[in-house]
Amino acid sequence: MEFFGEALALGIDAVIVGICFKMYLRTWNAIKLIEEMPEVLDVGPQLEQLVAKQPEKQLPYVAVRGSVKALGSPLHSLGAPDVPAVIQKLTCKEHVVSRGAMGFWADQERTLQETVNSVPFALTGHKGTRVEVVDALAAEVLDLETVVDHFEPSAPGLVDHLWGFFTGVRQRGLQNTEDVLREGALLTGVGTLTLVPSDPKGDLHLVPPADGAPFFLTAMSLHTLARHLDREKRMYKWLAVTFGAVGLILVGAAARRWWRSAERRAADAAAREATEVERRERRRRARSARDRDNVPEALLCVVCRLRERELVLLPCGHVCLCEECGEAVGPRCPVCRAQIEKRTAAYVA
Ligand SMILES: [Zn+2]
Ligand SMILES: [Zn+2]
């Protein structure tokens, strides 16, 4: 059981280390890609010409900047109805104070509901040029602006207080937030820019890169984005190192205990062996001291009829064998055929 718990802990730890390390490499790679990237390209007629010149009619990883515009009718923010938006995220969180295992009360929040609405949109530039953003919700960094952040404290009655005392959870209130990507916001999109001549709405599409490189939709400059990712990278590194150390400690503790128990088993076996050797030696001396011919008929081993009976078989209790025959005989008592569970020395005095 203990072993199972340890193996489980170690397995979980290894998975966490793996994920952190993978995320570390991913952000490291993203930073490298961003740093190698040429300047941000503004949406405009020259952008279309640039993509059209490429042999595959696409730029695999670029940053383009333009202002957000819905391709149909925009969404309307609930909290600020005059703000037209293209992405809207509504979150309802419950804030509670709960008593932890140590008996302290601590603030906690849990998301009760999260709804994301979006409409197709494009990044637009001058002369009506635009780049349609495809699959915006897949972006790793998606900068939204908070337009509503409302906290409604709960007003607990006496019953709620008592309930909270006994259950260890007291409600503090509900927080409703609304985050939007508003129309007209200046946004930088990092992804694959591709020319789609069949699309009647817009020829250029910005799509998540097919090779798994990260897709960003951000209000930050590339430099700030790289710094933001660098912080993330350092956090993943720290987590990977920390959980890695925890794993090493777990392995070390298990190895130490295994080693100890192996040592103990070896010592026990050696002690048993020593006792056994001593017992045989004593027996041998006792035998040689006795005159063999004087062993009464009734005390002779039933198998060899040569040596004295020296063992008691358990659980049947028969004293019918000498040491040698006791080791050679099958799993059953030669007298009563009962299963032999144990053989132990018998001293007939
Ligand atoms: Zn015998
Ligand atoms: Zn028996």
From TrEMBL:
Catalytic reaction equation(s): S-ubiquitinyl-[E2 ubiquitin-conjugating enzyme]-L-cysteine + [acceptor protein]-L-lysine = [E2 ubiquitin-conjugating enzyme]-L-cysteine + N(6)-ubiquitinyl-[acceptor protein]-L-lysine
Any Pfam family hit: GIDE
Lineage: superkingdom: Eukaryota
EC code: 2.3.2.27
GO biological process: protein ubiquitination
Gene Ontology MF, one: ubiquitin protein ligase activity
Entry annotated with the keyword Ribosomal protein: no
Gene3D superfamilies in alphabetical order: Zinc/RING finger domain, C3HC4 (zinc finger) (3.30.40.10)
Ranges for domain RING-type: 301-337
One Gene Ontology term, aspect cellular component: mitochondrial outer membrane
Sorted UniProt keywords: Membrane, Metal-binding, Mitochondrion, Mitochondrion outer membrane, Transferase, Transmembrane, Transmembrane helix, Ubl conjugation pathway, Zinc, Zinc-finger
Membrane topology: Multi-pass membrane protein
Subcellular localization(s) per the UniProt record: Mitochondrion outer membrane
Enzyme class: transferase
Spans traversing the lipid bilayer: 235-255
Name listed for the protein in its UniProt record: RING-type E3 ubiquitin transferase
